[in-house]
Write a structure and sequence with these properties.
Helices cover about 30% and strands about 20% of the residues. It is of the alpha+beta class. The chain binds copper (II) ion.
Length: about 325
């Protein structure tokens, strides 16, 4: 079982991490940021030094000539070398390791994702493991990916809009494409980002950490704050105002839905709770796991996000089976 804070929470630095390869990405981000900070401070000091050292003074003209000192040359070469080390020593091996080892076909969970202005269409092959044929002529509002019903492989297929279910601890292999413009498949909590390009199918793979089910995450990321310290901002990002219910001085705020309240409404709501003698707020993050579009793809780009629900492998199988049940028609109907 997982410790209470194994996935961290949304904070000042990075979003919680729930994929296996993500730790490597975070390590690289850390190294790069510290190095850039060092460079920024170093060059800043050097800049100020130059301003003072070569300024115009009594009896001396401002000098515009480049100094030919050895130190500056060493510094330049040093910086270049360090960048080479970062690129060749860290980035390239990490990327090569990732791209050259796709998970084996027989034990990966394949999902097709078809990006569209402005939604994510998700296609599961169903229990038979075979994707049904799709074609543009079958596309309709009820069938956004154009699944061909006459194909036997399509009978148990599942298609979802803006919802993606994933098993934890399994290799997930997403076959990504787009039906209109360039989009970007981005799951911040899994450190996954890949452009979706019309006419191309680009695979992207990752593995959700074992135990990182939506259920567990909800529980772990739920926190109680004294009401005096609940900043409106935190409140806004975590809750839907219509979902709160008072329980003996403690307010439980549920996940999901839009707040639909203005800044002032939120402040008023907090004030009202305070006046009612509420001392603590238990906040659950809203949409902790999301698939978003990271490419400005049109005027409603901001709406392009899908909820991700992670299950244990057993629950996932159960979910898939339920979803792919053929619709039963009632004779009396
Ligand atoms: Cu998009």
């Amino acid at each position: 079982m997982l410790a209470a804070s194994s996935f961290g929470h949304y904070g000042a630095w990075l979003p919680p991490l729930i994929s296996v390869h993500g730790a490597e990405v975070d390590r690289l981000i850390d190294i790069l940021h510290w190095f850039m900070l060092l460079l920024f401070v170093g060059w800043g000091i050097f800049f100020v030094y130059c301003l003072v050292r070569f300024r115009r003074r009594a009896g001396q003209k401002a000098s515009y000539v480049l100094p030919k000192g050895k130190i500056s040359k060493y510094a330049e070469v040093g910086v270049a070398l360090f960048e080479v080390v970062l690129l060749v020593g860290f980035s390239m091996p990490a990327w090569a390791e990732y791209r050259t080892h796709p998970p084996a076909k027989d034990h990966r969970v394949e999902i097709r994702v078809i990006a569209q202005q402005f939604q994510w269409n998700v296609h599961y092959p169903g229990p038979d493991g075979k994707f049904g044929r799709t074609a543009a002529e079958f596309i309709s509002d009820a069938n956004p990916i154009g699944l061909d019903d006459s194909d036997p492989a399509a009978a148990d297929d599942v298609q979802l809009v803006n919802e993606m279910h994933l098993p934890t601890g399994k290799d997930i292999y997403v076959r990504l494409t787009s039906m209109d413009v360039v989009h970007s498949f981005s799951i911040p909590t899994m450190r996954v980002k890949q452009d979706a390009i019309p006419g191309m199918e680009i695979p992207v793979w990752f593995k959700v950490l074992e135990g990182a089910t939506t259920e567990n995450l909800d529980e772990q990321m739920t926190r109680t704050y004294p009401i005096g310290r609940v900043a409106w901002d935190r409140f806004r990002h975590h809750v839907a105002a219509k979902d709160y219910a008072d329980r003996s001085g403690q307010v439980i705020l549920a996940r999901g839905g839009d707040l639909g309240a203005t800044f002032r409404d939120g402040k008023k709501l907090l004030e009202r709770l305070r006046q009612a003698g509420v001392t603590e707020l238990t906040l659950r993050p809203r949409n902790a796991l999301e698939l978003v579009c990271a490419q400005l793809c049109g005027n409603s780009h901001y709406k392009m996000h899908a909820q991700i629900i992670t299950h244990t492998p057993q629950d996932y199988e159960k979910w898939l089976k339920e979803q792919s049940k053929p619709v039963e028609f009632n004779e009396d109907f």
